[in-house]
Design brief:
With about 325 residues, this protein is mostly helical. The protein has 14 helices and no strands. Helix 5 packs across helix 9 and helix 10 packs antiparallel against helix 11. It is flat and about 85 Å long.
Length: about 325
């Protein structure tokens, strides 16, 4: 087990290194100059000597390989540097401010999805071709098909024009304190948008895995031994059917950025997704590079935890 974890961590370190190199190169290939983004177009007139001095201050006048080595070494020491655009603001502070906002929204959405989707998927698999099965199929198809940005905008319209008449106004956009109870209403719409797609995906995966597990020999053997249907389903079929769901959960956690960029932009939530897009458009090298590396580390760790969870759920799987 220890050798497996060590090997996976070494592989993950190589992946993170390659991602950091590619991200560094892509940011340098993007059109534009962060110095002019910092000064503002047409607002400040300064000499070329002053521009060169600013570049020298941030190390942008050095060769690319030297810029990368300095940044990577500082990153290994836990120093993410300062934002190029928001002068004097540490990148680590910006990232650690945004992470709780994104994390809590996604954790709530994932928890709600699992609480509803796993029982629904099991029941749809057990009652295959029933009315409930068809209803979950239609609902899952709609949930996967509806774009997050469209659903978010439609919910904003609905909660602005109609819902306030019955339950009062609900905060739709703006700052959401990650642990502030006074503004818990602000979580409703972004969580609802994220939950919709996750609920649809997990339900369909759980249904398919349950149907496959119920057709296995060990399930027929359990029935032949005289075990009750409830025991066969819960102790034998469901446990093995959870493996694909664990994979889906790991995938959703590892790639939360792709799902939250749209949601955080629509609802003006200052999380990881919005920080990433704003930093890319403003050519804030330090923020983008550090954020991508942090997310790469998250992906590696989540994939490792997912693999180790397989062995815990299914005794037939052994990590050697």
């Amino acid at each position: 087990m220890l050798s497996y974890i060590t090997r996976r961590l070494l592989q993950g370190a190589l992946v993170i290194f390659l991602i950091s190199v590619v991200t560094f190169a892509v940011m340098r290939l993007m059109p534009g100059d962060p110095v002019y983004m910092l000064l503002g177009e047409g607002e400040i007139r300064i000499s070329q000597e002053q521009i060169e001095a600013i570049k020298a201050k941030w190390g942008l006048d050095r060769p690319y390989y030297e810029q990368y080595l300095v940044w990577a070494w500082n990153l290994l020491r836990g120093d993410f540097g300062d934002s190029l655009i928001r002068t004097g603001v540490p990148v680590r502070e910006m990232i650690f401010e945004a992470i709780p906002v994104t994390a809590i929204i996604n954790i709530i959405a994932l928890f709600i999805s699992l609480v509803i989707a796993i029982p629904a998927g099991i029941w749809a698999g057990v009652k295959r071709n029933s009315t409930f099965d068809y209803a979950t199929a239609v609902g899952s198809t709609l949930g996967v098909s509806l774009p997050n940005f469209w659903l978010g905008l439609m919910l904003i319209v609905l909660f602005v024009l109609y819902i306030p008449q019955w339950i009062g106004e609900i905060p739709l956009i703006g700052r959401i304190p990650p642990f502030g109870l006074r503004s818990w209403q602000g979580y409703i719409l972004p969580v609802l948008v994220l939950t919709t797609e996750q609920l649809a995906v997990v339900t369909r995966v759980m249904r398919a895995a349950t149907i496959e597990a119920l057709g296995q020999d060990y399930v027929r053997t359990a029935y032949a031994k005289g075990l009750a249907k409830y025991v066969v389903i819960t102790r034998h079929a469901v446990r093995n059917a959870l493996l694909p769901v664990v994979t889906v959960i790991g995938f959703r956690i590892a790639f939360i950025l792709s799902g939250t960029i749209v949601v955080e932009t629509v609802f003006a939530i200052p999380g990881i997704g919005r920080l990433f897009t704003d930093s890319v458009f403003r050519l804030d090298y330090q923020v983008v590079q550090s954020l991508v590396v942090v997310l790469a580390v998250l992906v590696v760790l989540v994939n490792l935890i997912t693999d180790l969870t397989y062995a815990f759920i299914d005794p037939r799987i052994r990590i050697e």
